[in-house]
Specification:
By secondary structure, the protein is mostly helical. The chain has two domains: 66 residues, Winged helix-like DNA-binding domain superfamily/Winged helix DNA-binding domain (Arc Repressor Mutant, subunit A); 68 residues, no CATH class. Helix content is 49%, strand content 6%. It has seven helices and four strands; from the N terminus they run αααββααββαα. β1 and β2 form a beta hairpin.
Length: 159
């Protein structure tokens, strides 16, 4: 049976000591026969981080979590909590309709967390011009505050 690409990524992370972002992306680019690009596969990795299957330690090395090891052969399968969260967001939880007014701009919690992961954690704000970075970081801080997420070192000048 052929392994999925994400299963191969999980196995690479699990067997590679001190797996850096560059090492991981190089592996993924080689696996997909594409030229190296630091942002390649970023959305998929952000999803796996949000699902708590992978994480980066204090030194920035990728690690496979217990959840990642458990779901190594089916990384995209929804967990029970995700099923409940999605049902609640869509207006149904335990068979009861959630009676609230929807926002004008429809955006999910998962999309917000994905945006924080993509822009801040992966370091893409560093690649922006000073003005773009300034205004993007204001929005990132506001959204992170709404979700109780601490953006470590966001105010340091050497970022």
């Amino acid at each position: 049976m052929t392994k999925t690409k994400m299963t191969q990524v999980f196995e690479f992370i699990n067997t590679t000591n001190k797996c850096t972002h560059k090492m991981l992306i190089t592996f993924i680019c080689n696996m997909n026969d594409v030229k190296y690009s630091s942002g390649y596969y970023g959305t998929n990795l952000a999803i796996m981080k949000r699902k708590k299957h992978i994480k980066t330690d204090i030194n920035g090395y990728y690690k496979l979590t217990k959840s990642g090891k458990k779901h190594i052969n089916n990384p995209y399968k929804e967990t029970l909590q995700e099923v409940k969260d999605n049902a609640y967001y869509n207006g149904y939880y335990d068979g009861k309709h959630k009676n609230t007014q929807m926002s004008i701009n429809k955006v999910t919690d998962a999309q917000c967390m994905d945006a924080i992961e993509y822009l801040f954690t992966n370091g893409y704000t560093k690649e922006m011009t000073q003005d773009k970075r300034h205004y993007t970081e204001i929005l990132l801080k506001k959204v992170a505050n709404c979700y109780g997420v601490e953006l470590v070192n966001i105010d340091k000048k050497e970022r």
